[in-house]
Amino acid sequence: MGQALPPDAALADVSGSVRYFDRDAAGIAALIRMRVAARFDLDTTVGIGPNPLLAQLAAHRGAAGAIRTVPDDPGAVAAFLTGLPAAALPGVGPATARTLASYGLVTADRIAATPLLTLQRILGTAAGRQLHRRAAGLDPTRVVPGSPPPTFSAEHRFVRDELDPGRQRGALTHLAERLGSRLRAERRACQALTLTVQYADRSTTTRSRTLPEATAHSPRLREAAHALHGTLGLQRARVRCLTLRAEKLCDEGAVSRQLSFGPEDDRAHRIEAAADRARARFGPDAVRPASTAGLR
Questions:
Q1: 54: which of 9, 174, 194, 285 is 20 to 30 A away, CA to CA?
Q2: Residue 286: how many CB atoms within 10 A of its CB?
């Protein structure tokens, strides 16, 4: 059984498929890679582990287009996590990584060896407990077929490395529109945005922002995305790819809408609803902001 992880990944529990296909997990992974290549002409990377966390970490280590396995053995898991940068662990953003580094906690094995109470004093009770478990390779979650994704993402890859900040902001406007449209279609809203910028040398920078209130309104997502972009001070940086991710999703019905004394906000929501209907009928790019014209 499988669970989608947008925009380009999935989790699969193959424990019930080993006997059916008469292959171990690595053999099933090779079969998946072969069929994806044949049907979609895509090269895939597969991580195999005893839980979703270790499988994802394995997939992200090393070169793309390979199968990497973390054996279901405490010694092998400890060896895999030794030297793993703290920032590679889910939930460790730039700010948390800097905080941990100030205490010398720069790798997963150092974090795992740190007393739980110490981590909780540094990060807080819940965050410290969660990170302590993850640094030890522990993950109690299970693959849930058909479950709503924990995040929505949209990506724009420039044909040529882009130097113009105006065109970068135009791409972000388009990504915010795509995210807003998808959130509204799924009757969801997000409470945080994360922007990842990939440069010509394939290095990346990530910035996150918690929104004042949960929203699926594209103009608010656009404003937050542009603000994140502005904090980077890219100037003449050669940008290859922009990824905007909506996080901390919640049901649309749980979101309260701020009342407005003017007609502008209501007009914007009516236009947005009309654009969503056009996209549903004619495709996701049927309606685009003028500032995104010419983007490829």
A1: 194
A2: 12
